[in-house]
Amino acid sequence: MAALAFVIDDDDRQRELYAGVLKNNALKVKTFASADEAWKELNASFPDVIICDIRMPGTDGISFLTRARDSGNSTPFILVTAYPEVRDAVRALKLGAVDYLEKPIDLDELAAAVSDVLRIPTLGDIDDTIPLELLKDMIIDSNTMKNIVRDAFKVAASDVSVLLTGPSGAGKEVVANFIHRASKRKNKPMVALNCAAIPQNILASEMFGHRKGAFTGAIEHRKGIFREADGGTLFLDEIGDMPLELQPTLLRAIETGMVSPVGSDSEIKVDIRLIAATNRDLEKAVERGEFREDLFYRLNVISFHLPPLKKRREDIMPLAKFFLAKKNLAERRFSGSAAELLVNHDWPGNARELANAVERAAILSNTDIILPEHLPAAVRRHTPLEKTPDFSAQAKTMRQAEIDAIKSALETTGGNRTKAAEILGISRRALIYKIKDYDLS
What we know:
Elements: E1 4-8, H1 12-24, E2 28-32, H2 35-45, E3 49-53, H3 61-70, E4 77-81, H4 86-94, E5 99-102, H5 107-118, H6 143-156, E6 162-165, H7 172-181, E7 190-194, H8 200-208, H9 225-228, E8 233-237, H10 247-256, E9 258-259, E10 268-269, E11 273-278, H11 282-287, H12 293-299, E12 302-305, H13 316-326, E13 333-334, H14 336-344, H15 350-364, E14 369-370, H16 377-381, H17 398-412, H18 417-424, H19 428-437
Parallel strand pairs: 1-2, 1-3, 3-4, 4-5, 6-11, 6-12, 7-8, 8-11, 13-14
Antiparallel strand pairs: 9-10
């Protein structure tokens, strides 16, 4: 179901302009000429985001936000004004507004602001045939991840087996969950098992179940994950660590759709869609005799390789912000130098290492700004490669240095102001002010 946005503005033209942008980004939109009209619908429609003008006849935007918060409504607000005042901005942000935009609004900035709130990509970033709610909480800013998601969405409609490869922490389980959510099995369970985390002597029982008394400690019947996932999706993580002697049983279960619990002579029919993942090179494992060739080909009907973060650095800062938001610290931001360290670190532990680094930095920072000293020593050590010093830069004025930094950030992000602001360690609104002030538009 598409996200719902309320647009509140007494100016008919502005209201329809905003609504058009949001509809083009696959959102449902309800428009209102006044805050009082919107209030009547607020608790009945449950919008996902509200875009509201501040100065309107009757109830103004700040008062509407205050009333909503006092009533316990936590819908994200983006406030809009043609008369920017620091006092209004401070009040709005203290009340919990997530953004404060100045008229005339850059419509790309409005789309980006809403995208930030809903944590979904804007239309065209992925594929307009993919329902945006499927992409919620997925970080897919790099072209590599966008291509994977596009193809994974096409594959999701079928029941073919999927093999996900890539290093630990690269997002294989995220993609597996996306495939399940996008499939016809989405209303049935997705059951996951890490093959490397289960002792070899009980792995067969975990997978296929067992009968009571089948072995010492089997004090009751167990269904096993194949039967638990019946009708849904079975996700076997670290399949490359599956014991060689158990692989023929797994292959037969996949091919026949029949499982036999440990200690039983009977077989039980199951209907599952299999997704497997590994951080090992299975083709080399086959060559070494550590993995069955027939099982490999049965798993590898469709495969996706998720590269490490160092190969898709565009995802690093969006992921860092996402991890802050998960800890209810979305108001924190990274200084420019801290963001540069994050983007240039190689992250051998990938997203898991990044999540730990972000959580540590958030705990150590005493303000809303995360500085380099708050980051782990390993991240601070892995600075970009030494470059020949540009002593002429020392003679630049502060103004020119800031202009150059803004230009560089905009060039790096292809003109995306939201991402440029993240690199610079300032708010998107502050960046827009500076672009206008320096006449860089």
